[in-house]
Amino acid sequence: MSLRKLVRHETILAVLLVLALVASANLSDRFFTVDNLLNQGRMMTEAGIPSFRMPETAIELFHHISKYYRNQKLLLQTPEPTRQFGRPEAEGAKMLIEALLAERRKVLSEMESKAILRAFRIPVAQTMVARTPTEALLLAEQIGFPVAMKVDSPDLVRKSDAGGVRLNITNAPSVRNAYHDIIEVVQKRHPNARINGVSIEPYLARPNGRELMIGVERDPTFGPIITFGAGGSEAEIFRDRAVALPPLNRFLAQDLIRSTRAALVLGEFRNLPPVNLGALEDVLLNISEMVCELPWLRELDLNPLIVDENGAIAVDARIVIDHASGKGDRYAHMAIHPYPAHLTQEWDQPDGRTVTIRPIRPEDADLEQAFVKGLSEESKYYRFMDTLRELTQSMLVRFTQIDYDREMAFVATIPEDDGRIVQIGRAHV
Question: What is the pLDDT of residue 128?
Fold first, then answer.
């Protein structure tokens, strides 16, 4: 059986092993004596067959094989190029953050937070802040009923716990009453909290929606980390969260989703249709790119993120920025450098062909193997100081899976020729 199949069926095999041992205990004593067991174990060991005295040890073995196989797959994942590089919206987000830092502000309002998210193509609910009850009426009429109203304060992380949230408001008198009620309740519970006003946004009635949470925190050792799990009011009760280091690609985003219990309700569940997982993965990828491109980002809280069969949308958002986080190299805040797409260049050749010079990627392993096979024996010797016909698997992994922070390998490829590599250059720090 292949390792892949072995891992997929580890639980079944472990259960069968336990059942077999239990069944053997019911056989005649002459088959279950200590001497016979030791002899059988010795014979299996000499034959190269793993044998264990206790079923727990065998189950632990299958668990380690599963973890090893999963970790090997994760190691093969390459940091994807940031798709937001050079986009006007992303540059606008950077300018907004720099302007806020110049005002000595670190906690962004909900409007400002959603503006940053929108710049990175993350769907958000439209939000506008009213400073007076009259402004609240005008904004509610402009947005359209029903609306949701929330207190706008940089000092309140959980607005619902502070009594600052009113949902499904369907008419103008209710808007005025809700405005006064929100301000009065929040001031009574948190007299020292700064209140900028009340935010007005469309009330999203999604009967098939699942409430999720996406967060970003800054670890003192690993830098920014992305968290994902169940959202809404029950997020802190169940604490269903998985953690991943950015940058993410689609495989890593899927693995992050599968690592939570919330993944169990994302498929077809009771009378609910399955959610649009592609839209959820896109949100995680865009969050990852935002973390890569905004070194000032210290905290991010998207809760709830509502996902259904039609897509995903962030209902509430909170971002905290920091001066010190933006210092140093472009990706100095990252534990894993993303693929440096900004170093890619194209050169037009006299014969009309175009040569693309770019950093190497792990998926270039087959192209590099073909490049080495096409070298002359003399070139191979001077390049590797050895006579070899082709690169070993370990050499391919070492040459193509690099740390873009401490080393660099550039490949010159011809896109018209299936991306064939014509030259490779390396630099190490």
Answer: 92
Write down how long the chain is: 429
Closest CA to 410 of 346, 373, 357, 374: 357
What's the Cα-to-Cα distance from 267 to each of 55, 162, 309, 325, rounded to whole Å? 34, 33, 10, 38
Q: Which two tokens stand for residue 144?
A: 């359209």
DSSP letter assigned to residue 79: P
What CA–CA distance (Å, rounded) separates 130 from 151? 10
User: Given the structure tokens 């093969």, which residue do they identify?
Assistant: 76
Q: Which residue has the tokens 């959820």?
A: 280
3-state secondary structure of 191: coil
Burial of 291-324, coded b for 16+ CB within 10 Å and e otherwise, reads: bbbbbbbbbbbbbbbbbbeebbbbbbbbbbbbee
Angle CA(357)–CA(361)–CA(362) in degrees, nearest 5? 155
Task: Yes or no: say if 274 and 309 are a contact pair by the CB < 8 Å rule.
Answer: yes
pLDDT value of position 39? 73
Are 44 and 82 spatial neighbours (Cβ–Cβ below 8 Å)?
Answer: no
Closest CA to 195 of 318, 281, 273, 109: 109
The beta-strand segments (E) located in 309-353 are 311-314, 317-321, 345-348
pLDDT for res 78: 58
Res 122: pLDDT: 94
Q: What is the pLDDT of residue 1?
A: 43
Q: What is the pLDDT of residue 7?
A: 44
State which amino acid sits at residue 54. M
Distance of CA 346 to the CA centre of its chain: 31
| Contact call for residues 339 and 80 (beta carbons, < 8 A) | yes
Distance CA 261, CA 183 (A): 37
207-233 residues labelled b (16+ CB within 10 A) or e (exposed): eebbbbbbbbbbeeeebbbbbbbbbbe
Taking 70 as the pLDDT cut, the residues of the chain under it are 1-38, 40-41, 72, 74-88, 234-238, 324-328, 429
What is the reported pLDDT for 4?
A: 46
Q: Based on C-alpha coordinates, what's the Rg of the chain?
A: 28
User: In this structure, what DSSP letter does residue 77 have?
Assistant: P
Closest CA to 70 of 289, 236, 287, 251: 251
What does pTM read for this prediction? 0.76
Three-state DSSP at 329 gives coil
Residue appearing with tokens 């994302």: 266
Asked if residues 137 and 175 have their Cβ atoms less than 8 Å apart, the reply is: yes
